[in-house]
Amino acid sequence: MNEKITNYVAEILKVLVENKVPKKDFETIIEIIRKEYENCGVIQEDTQKEFFQKFLENQEKG
């Protein structure tokens, strides 16, 4: 996955976490990001799931 895109998405998600966006809204935003990148063919679906799962696990840790 393109590192620039990864960093961009991570920054978006970090801001959402820092602002304590409700989980339902957070999941909706993640789904929108997934669909946009999937439509562009930039991020493959399996890579998306792996990326977002790792991100969420890291957020839960700390």
Distance, first to last CA: 24 Å
Count of all domains = 1
Task: Give the low-confidence spans.
Answer: none
Main sheet, how many strands, which sense, barrel? none
Helix content: over 70%
User: How many strand segments?
Assistant: 0
The number of helical segments is 3
Overall outline: globular
> Rounded to an integer, what's the Rg over CA atoms?
11 Å
| Structural class computed from helices and strand pairing | mainly alpha
Outline the structure in words:
This protein is an all-alpha fold and 62 residues long. It has one domain. Helix content is 82%, strand content 0%. The chain has helices spanning 3-18, 23-40, 45-61. The longest helix has 18 residues, at 23-40. The protein is globular. It starts with a helix and ends with a helix. The model has no long low-confidence stretch (mean pLDDT 74).
List the helices and strands and how they pair.
Elements: H1 3-18, H2 23-40, H3 45-61
Observed structural traits:
3 helices; 62 residues; mainly alpha
What's a quick, concise take on this entry?
82% of the residues lie in helices and 0% in strands.
